[in-house]
Inverse folding.
């Protein structure tokens, strides 16, 4: 008889009033291994000659940078992405309601660094009581 296993609760989401919108993105080489909930900043986008023109090219958000990645743009939806040595296609959320404690940031950034900017782009952060 198989053992019963419960599905792990997805603590990234906080509420179901506004469903999240997901888009295709490219995580830029050199970003390392990043995981679900990483807040991403947009550095550029794929050019018109590319089959996927307009797709955002992203790295973990870091307020000390000046390449566009200092501002949040989306939240990584994939469980894990390894962009250590090559660009990787991934999925990210551009809006929705998220658990502020489950979000991750690049550099020494915290939720306090980016919470206002996240709200301005439609990402609502909430405290989740456990």
């Amino acid at each position: 008889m198989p053992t019963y296993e419960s599905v792990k609760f997805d603590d990234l989401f906080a509420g179901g009033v506004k469903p999240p919108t997901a888009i295709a993105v490219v995580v830029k080489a050199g970003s390392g291994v990043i995981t679900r909930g990483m807040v991403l900043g947009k550095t550029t986008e794929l050019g018109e000659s590319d089959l996927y023109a307009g797709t955002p090219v992203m790295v973990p958000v870091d307020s000390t940078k000046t390449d566009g990645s200092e501002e949040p743009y989306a939240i990584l939806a994939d469980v894990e992405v390894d962009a250590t040595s090559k660009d990787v296609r991934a999925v990210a959320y551009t809006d929705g309601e998220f658990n502020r404690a489950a979000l991750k940031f690049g550099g020494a950034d915290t939720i306090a660094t980016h919470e206002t900017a996240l709200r301005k782009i439609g990402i609502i952060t909430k405290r989740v009581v456990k």
